[in-house]
Amino acid sequence: MTLQLARRMASIKHSEIREILKVTQQPDIISFAGGLPAPELFPVEAIDRVQHLVLQEAGTQALQYTTTEGFAPLRSWIAKRMNSRLGTSFDLDNVLITHGSQQGLDLSGKVFLDPEDVVLCESPTYLAAISAFKAYGCRFIEIPTDADGMDMVVLENTLKSTDNVKLIYVIPTFQNPTGKTWNLQKRQQLAQLASRYNVAVIEDNPYGELRFEGQDLPSVKSFDKTGQVLCTGSFSKIFCPGFRIGWIAGDKELIRKYVLIKQGTDLQCNTVAQMVIAKYLELYNIDDHILKIVALYKKRRDIALQTIQEHFPKNVHYTHPEGGLFTWVELPENVCARDILDLALQSKIAFVPGGSFSRIMKDKIPLG
Amino acid sequence: MTLQLARRMASIKHSEIREILKVTQQPDIISFAGGLPAPELFPVEAIDRVQHLVLQEAGTQALQYTTTEGFAPLRSWIAKRMNSRLGTSFDLDNVLITHGSQQGLDLSGKVFLDPEDVVLCESPTYLAAISAFKAYGCRFIEIPTDADGMDMVVLENTLKSTDNVKLIYVIPTFQNPTGKTWNLQKRQQLAQLASRYNVAVIEDNPYGELRFEGQDLPSVKSFDKTGQVLCTGSFSKIFCPGFRIGWIAGDKELIRKYVLIKQGTDLQCNTVAQMVIAKYLELYNIDDHILKIVALYKKRRDIALQTIQEHFPKNVHYTHPEGGLFTWVELPENVCARDILDLALQSKIAFVPGGSFSRIMKDKIPLG
């Protein structure tokens, strides 16, 4: 006899990226797959020192249970950081610490989604966001997205004509997987449309601090007058991912709902990790550290784009990301990215075929 | 305009225990509420040393992403420990590392439960398990439970007469909140009934290592011939809760489903915490550490029971736990525990009224 699982399990499949990442664990593979931060930049010595200080100064507190909301000094730092960089006006009660920004997506699904509800997202979009929301039985509609962001006419028409749209999920800065960044006008329009059609927006921003060139832009949230927009963030790309510390921030009443749902999900995040990050932020200048990350990633991007330009056929198109970790390459219609991946793997080179990032592309066109 | 939330949110309320725990954060309160481990026993110095070693020896690995399944040496240790103490026959592929055992419950809800499915549980049961499962829209049926475990006749009749029973949730050893322990026969019967009626069992065991007296008993899982039983466990009560490291173990094919669902939920658990615990287990004898915990908790239990016996009215009944953290006090029918809590709080003493632990009791009888 086989146990009967929840209906959602029928649609939960192995992540293609996770499978490719397994291949990349072979030491001789050159991997362009997966957004793994550069480990040589992890501040190992500083963390070692800070961990020791935290345990010396407040060891029993650091190893004990804490509140679901998270460590207050860390929440305050996040609120101030967002206010100064993203144009928000948050204090600590707007911020819930999550187990990486991925948990912010999972909790958003739990707070907002019933089966058959609709999530609107960019095309293509972050694969693991699809996994997170899909577990709540939702449908997805991908909105065409160009170099400046979603097509606002299609977005509004979709909002008008579709019942039960509960979430609009976007990564407006250095998007995963395309590396594209929304312009100012589209950020403003998204906030207005979300308010007009009373839909929540999840503004995912794990890469925003990693700008190589160009001007920082205010967040979608900064244009939100009605509390529709929730922002997720993470220490994974500016500090290290191993601690699994991220956050979700938004309207206080809504964040209280997230706190309630997180209680039953996992009680709270790792206390030590939260206190170590807070202490690091107190003793070190994280901006200096981010400068080092930006310098390395910019160099890598420059080499990547230069190599593409020199060696790829001219009918291959690619994005020019102003920051973050990802570049998106578009192949001619008659070329299948999965076939090229097979060839590349023979030369010990890995990348993620683009079809993985799109529900529509997965079903309809080969890959690109 | 107010955003429309998922239907589940209507039934998600503030946890009464969490509210009482807030009161207990006042420094002059004597608290019998909440299962907070004794912080004076946290191995702060050992953890400090081990953290340093882990960062020195494998800093970049410890701060990087890892697999969803978790750190292999830790999973192997858990499998061996369970085999030697609980009569299981696991290896590392039977074990998924979770964010505390609480996440094992949440993931179980996600893997098994559709709205209106039924969860059978002890009466009373662990409050946060109700919260975890309730988020998936299930109903609960409480099975009468005496000093030796669930009433097996009622359990079988309920299984026979109820559609869509997906989970049986039990804490057979030093139960939360009663401190009771199931006898051998009922453990065996539960495994048989689960197999006969093809229902999954979640055997939650966060306190099993903390035995003050009497003989260890084999787990329900050890009697499971058909792979129906999943076991959750945790380092919170034998090491420290701040790291949020627990596990769920069971049939390999089923654990693969949990791994898939955890990928979309939060990618993985904290890498550093997993490696620190594994290194601690390699360098220190955790059994020596557990002996210290058991000695202190036994002393506390003895004082509690002796005080109850000396000072409580004779028509108040209470359990005699052979281990763990909890004792359950039953008041006469006409006395309301919440009224007594109000009086106790005036004398700066806190406890959790029993009605919190039961959906039925909450609705029907005052409290007890």
Description:
2 copies of one chain form a homodimer. By secondary structure, chain A is α/β, with parallel strands linked by helices. The first copy, chain A, has 2 domains: 7-43 and 287-364, Aspartate Aminotransferase, domain 1 (Alpha-Beta Complex); 47-283, Aspartate Aminotransferase, domain 2, CATH 3.40.640. Helix content of chain A is 43%, strand content 13%. Chain A has 12 helices and 12 strands. Chain A has helices at residues 16-24, 44-63, 72-86, 100-112, 127-134, 152-161, 184-196, 252-266, 271-283, 286-311, 337-346, 359-364, and strands at 30-31, 95-98, 118-123, 139-146, 149-150, 165-170, 200-204, 229-234, 246-249, 317-318, 329-330, 349-350. An 8-stranded mixed beta sheet of chain A has the order 2-9-8-7-6-3-4-5, with helices on both faces. In chain A, strands 1-12 form a two-stranded parallel sheet. In chain A, helix 2 crosses helix 9 (271-283), helix 4 (100-112) packs parallel to helix 5 and helix 4 packs across helix 8. The longest helix of chain A has 26 residues, at 286-311. Chain A starts with 15 loop residues before the first helix and ends with a helix. Mean pLDDT of chain A is 93; it is low at 361-368.
